[in-house]
Design brief:
A hairpin with a 4-residue loop joins strand 3 (42-47) and strand 4. The termini are far apart. The chain has one domain (2-161). The protein is an alpha+beta fold and 227 residues long. The protein is 22% helix and 22% strand. Strands 1-2-4-3 form a four-stranded mixed sheet, covered by helices on one side. Strands 5-8-9 form a three-stranded antiparallel sheet. A two-stranded antiparallel ribbon has the order 6-7. The relative contact order is 0.12. The model has no long low-confidence stretch (mean pLDDT 85). Helix 1 (11-20) packs across helix 2 (93-112) and helix 2 packs across helix 3 (121-136).
Amino acid sequence: MDLHNSTSLDTERLHSMFVRHTLPYRHDKLKVRVRYSRGAEFSGTCYYGHAQILVNLGRHNRYPFTLATGIAKARTNRTHWWRPTYRLTVADAYQLALFVYLHELYHYLVKAAKRSPRRKEAMSDRFATRVLVDYYGCRVCDTSGRRVARETWDFKDLDAFITAAPRQTPPAKPRPAPKQKVVARPRPAAKQKPVPKPKPVSGPTSREIPVTIRGLQYTFDFEAALP
């Protein structure tokens, strides 16, 4: 959002409020200008082709400030119809600027959703009033000052009407780092156990046997003759 503020209000605070209540809809191409009006207590304008919203505030407004809205249900009889006036009270200039901004933002989102933005004043008022009531505790009263029940003015699904409007793209999730391949270290060669020397076979010891053949006598090794 490109926000330019020429009033005495804090720009950072305005920007934070506007962005917070614009999400989840896209606002990267949106240009918002907050300035003092030439004489009106407040006013707003939306230029669809330039994606620009003008928020004009009265320089000498006194707060709390009460503004008339068109959020009530229309009533009819046999001859005509009318809409009661419900009044919304805001605490300061920041809340008034937010109301004007949200009113014009809904017109912008209706156009972005490829719907006709004509005759959407009551819906735009409800869109802005809903935020002021839910997040800032603002009161909605009738012309006698009596607080009115919510179901008498919050009776349409405003978000469903602009569901086709472009939404903010969520930031891409960082890709996980690639896993490093673990190189297996070669195992040290196992120490070979020394081969035990064969034990000598126990058995009868060799002995010499004297043999006499026809008058000749020599010694015969009986152990060596064995296979």
